[in-house]
């Protein structure tokens, strides 16, 4: 796991600093995490790491396309390891975020919709808000 992270930092031409490795492994473990969650995790192994340091590192990892920011309604942004495009199911009760793959017809329809409005689609993001399985008590 650490090794995978170190390698992906190197692939992006970045030095595998302890801060970056700690932040990336925390996010990797959780799937999606906000700054506070990452900070609380980082404090365990690096008690001297400040929130500002976590924030600065996360911001630069987003700029380097290693992390992706997930902007949420009424909540702090979450971050995830950048991977192939997907959508999110977001629980309004507990904040749990789950990845779902986009079905082709949906992506195609959006493309067609954009085209018919003479708009060039570059990015497609779909967040679905609702109540998750465990909050529904199923
Ligand atoms: Zn929930
Ligand atoms: Zn995701």
Notes on the structure:
- The chain is of the alpha+beta class and 138 residues long.
- The chain has two domains: 80 residues, Arc Repressor Mutant, subunit A (Orthogonal Bundle); 50 residues, 2-Layer Sandwich (Dna Ligase, domain 1), CATH 3.30.1490.190.
- 46% of the residues lie in helices and 17% in strands.
- It is built from six helices and six strands, in the order ααβααββββαβα.
- Strands 1-3-2 form a three-stranded antiparallel β-sheet. Strands 5-4-6 form a three-stranded mixed β-sheet, with no helix packed on it.
- β4 and β5 form a beta hairpin.
- The longest helix has 13 residues.
- The chain is globular.
- The site of one zinc ion (ZN) has 7 residues, from α6.
Topology:
Blueprint: H1 2-11, H2 18-30, E1 33-34, H3 35-45, H4 51-63, E2 67-70, E3 78-81, E4 87-91, E5 97-100, H5 104-116, E6 127-130, H6 133-136
Parallel strand pairs: 4-6
Antiparallel strand pairs: 1-3, 2-3, 4-5
Helix pairs in contact: 1-2, 2-3, 3-4
The protein binds zinc ion (2 copies).
Bound molecules: zinc ion
Mean pLDDT: 92
Global Rg: 17 Å
- Give the total of domains: 2
Strand order of the largest sheet: 1-3-2
* CATH architecture assignment of the largest domain: Orthogonal Bundle
Could you give the order of the helices and strands?
A: HHEHHEEEEHEH
First-to-last CA distance: 32 Å
Q: How many strand segments?
A: 6
Give the amount of beta strand, in percent: 15-25%
Q: What is the helix content?
A: 40-55%
Biggest β-sheet description: 3 strands, antiparallel
Query: If helices are DSSP runs of H or I spanning 4 or more residues, what is the number of helices?
Result: 6
| Poorly predicted parts | none
What's the CATH topology name of the largest domain? Arc Repressor Mutant, subunit A
């Amino acid at each position: 796991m650490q090794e995978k992270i170190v390698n992906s930092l190197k692939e992006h031409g970045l030095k595998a600093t302890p801060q970056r490795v700690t932040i990336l492994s925390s996010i990797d473990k959780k799937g999606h995490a906000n700054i506070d969650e990452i900070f609380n995790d980082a404090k365990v192994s690096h008690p001297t790491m400040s929130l500002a340091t976590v924030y600065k590192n996360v911001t630069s990892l987003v700029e380097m396309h290693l992390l992706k920011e997930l902007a949420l309604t009424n909540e702090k942004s979450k971050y995830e390891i950048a991977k192939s495009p997907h959508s999110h199911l977001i629980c309004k009760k507990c904040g749990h975020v789950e990845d779902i793959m986009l079905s082709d017809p949906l992506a195609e329809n959006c493309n067609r919709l954009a085209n018919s409005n003479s708009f060039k689609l570059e990015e497609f993001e779909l967040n679905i808000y609702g109540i998750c399985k465990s909050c529904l008590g199923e």
